[in-house]
User: Fold this.
Amino acid sequence: MSRAEPARLAVRKTYKLYIGGAFPRSESGRSYAVTSSRGEFLANASKASRKDARDAVSAARKAFAGWSGATAHNRGQILYRVAEMLEGRRAQFAAELTEAGTRRAGAVVDAAVDRLVWYAGWSDKIGAVAGTANPVAGPYFNVSSPEPTGVVAVIAPDEPLLGLVSVIAPVIVTGNTCVVVASERAPLPSITLAEVLATSDLPGGVVNILTGSAGELAPWLAGHMDVNAVDLTGVTDRSLAVACEEAAAENLKRVLRPAALSFSRGGKGSGEGKGESGAGGTDWFADPGTGRLTAFLETKTVWHPLGP
Amino acid sequence: MFEYAPAPESRDVVDIKPSYRLFIGGEWVDSRGEERHKTVNPATEEALAEIAWATEEDVDRAVGAARQAFGAWSRTPGSERAKYLFRIARIIQERSRELAVLESLDNGKPIRESRDVDLPLVAAHFFYHAGWADKLGYAGYGPDPRPLGVAGQVIPWNFPLLMLAWKIAPALACGNTVVLKPAETTPLTALLFAEICRQADLPPGVVNIVTGAGETGAALVGHPGVDKVAFTGSTEVGRLIARSVAGSGKKVTLELGGKAANIVFDDAALDQAVEGVVNGIFFNQGHVCCAGSRLLVQESIADDLLDALKRRLATLRLGDPLDKNTDIGAINSAAQLARIRRLSDLGEAEGAERWSPVCPLPERGFWFPPTIFTGVAQSHRIAREEVFGPVLSVLTFRTPAEAVEKANNTPFGLSAGVWTEKGSRILWMADRLRAGVVWANTFNRFDPASPFGGYKESGYGREGGRHGLEAYLDV
Amino acid sequence: MTIPLAGVATSNAALRNLLHGLPGVDRVGADQRAAMLGTRSIKTTAKAEGIDLAIRMVDLTTLEGADTPGKVRAMCAKAARPDPGDPSVPKVAAVCVYPDLVARAVSALGGSGVKVASVATAFPSGRSSPEVKVAETAFAVAAGADEIDMVIDRGAFLTGDYLKVFEEIAAVKEACARPGDGRDAHLKVILETGELATYDNVRRASWLAMLAGGDFVKTSTGKVQPAATLPVTLIMLEAVRDFLAATGRKVGVKPAGGIRTTKDALKMLVLVNETVGDGWLDPGWFRLGASSLLNDLLMQRQKLATGRYAGPDYFTLD
Assistant:
């Protein structure tokens, strides 16, 4: 007759923020309970404050020179590495996504890996597609090439892995650094993704991930004078989107509007697919096109005389 | 000294009407409002003509006309739109002398510049974009990119007709219709352009010109029937526009202010660098958003360069804009003159040393002598704020890295200049300068095939080249 | 500009250091500056003043294998009285001939005040021995030449043998001396800019010529194209300006070859005016090497005076 083994108590993961390559708690000490789609308690996530957002912007700015100065090949290699590490954690992500209520979680993880691979390849090709040699009417060599905009604040969509990867990858592959506000409802995969990023040779500060309330953090990021662009894809509240766009005007940030607020007279808004009903309606499995890449690129034109 | 006798271009080639109406739906129509203002010749303060300041209702009519014209115009085959643009370009060439004289009269810029720079570029912009109209599917924006609709365009007074061309040519090539508001101090060439549209048989409503000041511009930008807003002007107004369109979904491009560094290394081709510095800040009286208003000179050659610069400045000829030998014309308006004076006085008050060549100014009109400030620090307001006048701040640096740091230490990011004979350094600098246009061993060059526009608070979007089409396509 | 000049002429390395240490010239920028100055509009009184100044600056030139005493005599008459019908027309600065015709020119011009210049040093190619070049110079000086227009050894210059070029100029300069009466011939050094090809070379060759003792730097022989272009003249003017600042010695400039019209000549004067100023607006410091230019200047002068366009039949062809 055998005795039943006592049930082993699982070691729970602590979910913190990801800032400058480190995993700090919110400086505010705040957290909020994250529940599964069935309402069960999963974990306490850090509830980032505006000061965390400020620190994240500092970290992103600090990382910008090195990351934008890295070779495109190097950035591509690192994104491939992120994809590899993500693939290695497929089961973990699938489980987390399932708890967050994502259907066909395995397929979503696969799509996220593939999306990273796809964007990784753009690192050393976007210049050829978005750049031009300009035949000016004079004795000048004249070329235009894309350059990263700088620090980009990203309000990620409520699509915990595929949506998140789909907004981060195009921003960083070209050399930008970013501060991402993860899905408020399902933030846990974003911190697990941060663990992937932290172990993928991605320099600290290139991606900073905040969990908490987009409604609370987005206006601070949109108004921050050291942020160069803001991606409002994950903003579903119209008045919040408008407030962010207004705040962004203060230093003329580039704004990628949520699909619902983009120009849509018979066409598609910048970077988004056609026929969308709103940010929540985006088909993240679809071919993303280059819109999200070019939204955060500046065109630099260089002139030089031609003479013997 | 070899004195050049006056060589004035005849103003008989232009026929200025006593007053102008609004150009809406292919017709000259009266403003529904009462407000009329004079546009003056800034070189003499003589009133040239009376201009209507369009009201919200006028703007609404103009947008309505543009909307009505949009359907047919956007369905017109690109090859046909191209031919309209070619026609316009040819008429501009045919009437270029008239346009140049009118531009110099209304704006105060030297006829040499309006004749040799503005007008050739205006015609070139229409020619260039004519060629795009039937090739948009090859521009990298998908096989059949669609126009946006009605473009509301607000342009500044520094290059009145050239800025019109930068706005209207790509808009029309892409199949949009436009309502354009020229600056209140320089409306005359835009109004003559309306006549050119009629000579070209451009369908009514495709181009509408409404004159007025800030309120007219705000009404245009804020009109719900406008799909696309394009603005060139100050960062201050650009900010207001960016804020006002928030939530509207209107596509926006902004070409705003600058405080460009013109960086001269000790191995530069010195004589050409001096010319580049002069052209960088004194071209068009310094009324240039991409003007090289901050000279960053390597300390080891600072004295030599300044001596050469001062010697060169003494040869600049300031005076009658219509004289073919004038290098520096009139400041565009009393308000702008006041701003230049205020910031220059501030420069002196902050401790910088002010220098101008001996340069008698005409008694009437708005004039400011070419001016250099030395001993300027990054913290001085003349080194930070856009003066938009013939005022150069001189700063020094010791190493390439310091030059980059100082050049980038501004909220603006429109342009930069680099002068060195060392190729690898040029590319290193160009890579690190956070500016939309980098002129290496040259300055203030423009071409319709070359994208122009800024980083940071200098705005967003590009004008010219393949990149410039994006602003007028639904992509 | 501080240029260390002591001991530069001791070695090719020292000369190279100096010449290659001069600021470079960006061709596009220089071309643009010259083109801009070319747009100056010189009308009415300025044009009249410019035409007379240009006439006074002309080195009336004949440098043909077919030159004869008769041809030179006729040209000298024209030089002293360009328009026989109008005594208000000034005489030209000089005539320029081959060495063997110097004596003829001197006798034809005797007392007129028009100088006699002679090309020398195996003009136009300069391909002979240093001894021959010096001897030819001495021959022309002995025949009465006031000015010697020598050519540099472009081959030596292009191979980097700056010392050879320097020493030849210095030797020719020495041969220009007239120990007897102290009236040394003025030395103009022809760079043949069309063969030097780059503007950097034009600047360096100008400095080399000035360092070696040249009194004038001259663009071209007239036998090679391009010759006296505006940008090349601009660069040489900048060189004499900077050389004066660096050494205190003033050197003149002579564009020659291809200056055919009044407009060409006036553009040159504008270039002088706005690059080095009125210190060089004098035949002592600026010359125009030309032949057919003179008649065009005379025709334009008459047009200004009479208001009618002139016809070539009314001007002598000498």
